[in-house]
Structure formats: structure tokens, C-alpha cells
């Protein structure tokens, strides 16, 4: 928990990392995903069935099973970010970032003074091992935090180059579903206009020296996204996998019974 962020290290080494979404508020499901080979789990406090505090407790289950946790917070409020960091979230994804000013505010909220304005409680928080890690505030809190900002609206596209220059932001994570919807193409990510927008964002991120992340889809599989330079690809979610398995089992049952 308090040592090196191995996910950040893997990404910075050039590895393409794949992950699964955790949407069901169950530590058993979190463990199951890791034991089934999904060693990186994105705990979704935006769309999942759990609140922030319950989601942050899922970090324990993921890490205890040997995995690495990413927490998608529900909003970019300073208090939300501070709580997530204090509770031990080392890799954080922030949804719906619309401008460079917002990205800068988010990054500042994740950094201690003088680099930012994160509130100080380092000796008593889980992130520091409740004070066991003496240099948490001076070094680890900055060096081992992986901050991802989500670009999910066309209005944000013109700000990506500036976002890429902000201290503390490590990755631009593109949300193609919401991007397509905001462009007027709900559930139609394969439109040429959407792919043009994706290409524009990708180029700006690469030119700015940041890492790229996204979800599986928009007509692109894992191989295509890896070749496209993506460092983090989040694929299936627990609810979808359970639903598909349930449907498959039901069909098999019905076909057997006749």
C-alpha cells in the first residue's frame, strides 16, 4: 500500500496494461477478478453500485488478492480527491474533465504544498501506513500517485495540449462512449466524426508526452489500441461478465430441456 506504485511503474516502463471494471460493491467479486487474472481492477465509484467510502474499502480486497487498484472517483471535488488519497488510492481516475483550468485544480488538490494544496494529515492516514512511512508527504505522495483525467466531451478537445503540460497529471483517459454521445452519436462510437475526434485527442496527448488510456470499444480491440500507443486499456466489467454468463447458462438450459 505505502510502497512503490507498481502500476505506474509498469506504465512508465512502456508496458500496455489491461484492466477490468469493478461495478458490484463486493470484496468477493474484487478478489475473484484478481484471482481470474485481472491483476488491475478499476473500482468505479462513478457508475458502480457503491459509494465512495465503500469503493475505497475495495482497495483492500484488490491488494490483498495481489492486484493493483485504480479508483474512479465520482467527481472532482477537492474533498473527494483528498479522501481518496488519504484512504490509500494511489491511482486515481477523474471523470468529465472539461478544461485545463479544471485539470490544474484537480492536480493541485492531489499535491501537497508547495506543489499544490492538498490538505495535510499524513501521519494518521492509511496512505502513509498511519504514519509508518515517514517520507510519505515529502516524496511518496507525489512520486507514486498516478493521476488520470478523463476527456469525454468535445468541448475539452481544444484544451488537451495544455492539460498535457500540467504538473501532476500523468494520463489522459479517453471516454469514447460519452464523447460520442456529447457529439450527438449516442451508442454510435464507430462514426467517422468520433474517430476523427479520438485521433485529434491522441495526437495532442502524444505530442505533450503524456500516457494514453481508454476503454475497449469504438471498433478497436486490444491489439489495435496497443498499436495505437495506449498504455492502459480497461475492458470488461463484472456486471457484464456475470450477465453474459447467466444468459449463456440459461440458453444452454433451455436448449437441453427443449
TrEMBL record:
GO terms for molecular function: aldehyde-lyase activity; metal ion binding. Residues 21-226 form the HpcH/HpaI aldolase/citrate lyase domain. GO terms for cellular component: cytoplasm. It holds the Pfam family HpcH_HpaI. Its EC number is 4.1.2.52. Keywords: Lyase, Metal-binding. PANTHER family: 2-KETO-3-DEOXY-L-RHAMNONATE ALDOLASE, PHOSPHOENOLPYRUVATE CARBOXYLASE FAMILY PROTEIN. Belongs to the HpcH/HpaI aldolase family. This is 4-hydroxy-2-oxo-heptane-1,7-dioate aldolase. It comes from Pseudosulfitobacter pseudonitzschiae.
